[in-house]
Design a protein that fits this description.
CHP04046_FMN-dependent, FAD/NAD(P)-binding domain, 5-stranded parallel sheet, Auxin_biosynth/cation_transpt, 8-stranded mixed sheet, oxidoreductase
Length: 432
């Protein structure tokens, strides 16, 4: 079986930041394990981010276990290649037992443990940790294959830079973090951009003298457990706020882009050939995003007032542009649009996990990463436990909790096995 053993106390599936953080916690407890990564460490950061990609949270939030950001710009925003280096350096720092190029093709229960089919053969484990995020398969709208083949279509995960697209105007579908940042990337490069705006909220970059993330951290927002959130587990379906760390960080204001020539529309509803059908909800979507933005500002204002903090006064956002006569139909050919970028997210694919641990929507049922199947765990999911769970700042706490549970389960198992052995010896003596 090449360099894999037949059995491990723990198998961690996934070699990104979540899997590596899990490895660090297990090593700290002396728990033997292996990390299986079907590609390479930090693969998605290397291959599914565009050239100008950077963090939207400040560098100081990079808090992998025992390996905080140590650079000279804690309030800056690492670029893609710097993020990759940070993760790879962490893997070397903890000497993670990672086996790259080993895919798990099936995971199932076997006796009191688990059996894993891998590309190097079959192995067993007492416990398994799925550190594979929830973003597995690029998602596009179902009518994408009905659009004219002369129009280039790519998913955001395949976008690298404006030069990879053919001449002509570009239609970006979706206004979440990726959609807004890619639209900005194209806009700054002088490309004519059309953007279908959805319901994603937005957040100020800087407010009252500090990065809004700093204020929100002081307010405990990244530590708020999912069960204390007003939406409970429903918050896991929410889109992230859009803003950017580009060029030192700034707001993303779609209204300002419109003043500069970007064409904004409501949500994309349907399409065929070269014609698109669009919603009439642009004004509502922009207003709602601004409402969230100013709501965050008010929250910070209240915190400042309550704690008598000296901070400069900053006005709340006032719209700089409002849509008028927004079309609900668009002809790509007549508009000179040659490309579509789908920034419509990903769907999960847990088809290889043959365990009864999913709800009716296909989401793993768990509490703080401890699933409904004894010995099976998940880490690295957005809002696994808090808002910080899907970020570098929260993964240490989540993996610490899971590692403690694995350690307790292992101790209980060994204790049970010892007691069972003692009973067998006693029974044998009585039979003599």
């Amino acid at each position: 079986m090449s360099d894999l053993h037949n059995h491990y106390p723990v198998v961690v599936i996934g070699g990104g930041q979540a899997g590596l953080a899990m490895s660090a916690q297990l090593k700290a407890r002396g728990i033997a394990h292996v990390v299986l990564e079907k590609n390479t460490i930090a693969h998605s950061w290397k291959t599914q981010r565009w050239d100008a990609f950077c963090l939207v949270t400040p560098n100081w939030q990079c808090q992998l276990p025992g390996f905080p950001y140590a650079g000279s710009d804690p309030h800056g925003f690492m670029l893609r290649d710097e993020i990759v280096s940070y993760i790879e350096d962490f893997a070397r720092h903890i000497d993670a037992p990672v086996r790259e190029g080993v895919a798990v093709t099936r995971l199932r229960q076997s006796g009191r443990g688990f059996m894993l089919d891998t590309t190097l053969g079959e192995i067993s484990a007492d416990s398994v940790v799925l550190a594979v995020s929830g973003y597995h398969v690029p998602k596009v709208l179902p009518f994408a294959d009905r659009l004219d083949p002369s129009v280039t279509q790519i998913h955001s995960s395949a976008y690298r830079n404006p030069d990879q697209l053919p001449p002509g105007e570009i239609f970006v579908v979706g206004s979440g973090q990726s959609g807004c940042q890619i639209a900005e990337d194209l806009h700054l490069a002088g490309r004519k951009v059309h953007l279908a705006v959805g319901s994603a909220p937005r957040c100020p970059r800087f407010y009252r003298g500090r990065d809004a993330v700093d204020w929100l951290d002081d307010l405990g927002q990244y530590d708020l457990p999912v069960d204390k959130h007003s939406l409970k587990e429903g918050v896991r379906k929410n889109a992230n706020h859009y803003l950017t760390g580009r060029d030192g960080g700034r707001d993303i204001d779609l209204r300002k882009f419109a003043l500069e020539g970007m064409k904004l529309y409501g949500r994309l509803k349907d399409g065929r050939g070269t014609r698109l059908q669009l919603g009439d909800d642009l004004q509502v979507n922009l207003d709602n995003a601004d409402r969230v933005y100013n709501g965050i500002c008010r929250m910070i204002d209240e915190h400042i007032a309550r704690n008598k903090i000296a901070a400069p006064v900053t006005p709340h956002y006032e719209p700089v542009w409002s849509p008028t006569a927004v079309p609900t139909e668009l002809d790509l050919a007549a508009s000179g649009i040659s490309s579509i970028i789908w920034t419509t997210g990903f769907r999960s694919d847990w088809s290889w996990v043959d365990l009864p641990m999913f709800d009716g929507t296909g989401y793993p049922t768990h509490k703080r990463g401890v699933t409904s199947v004894d010995g099976a765990y998940v880490v690295g999911l957005p809002w696994l436990y808090t808002w910080g769970s899907g970020r570098f700042v929260g993964i240490g706490r989540d993996t610490e909790f899971v590692a403690d549970h694995i350690e307790e389960r292992s101790s209980a198992s060994h204790s049970g096995a010892y007691q069972a052995g003692q009973r067998e010896q006693y029974a044998a003596r009585e039979a003599v």
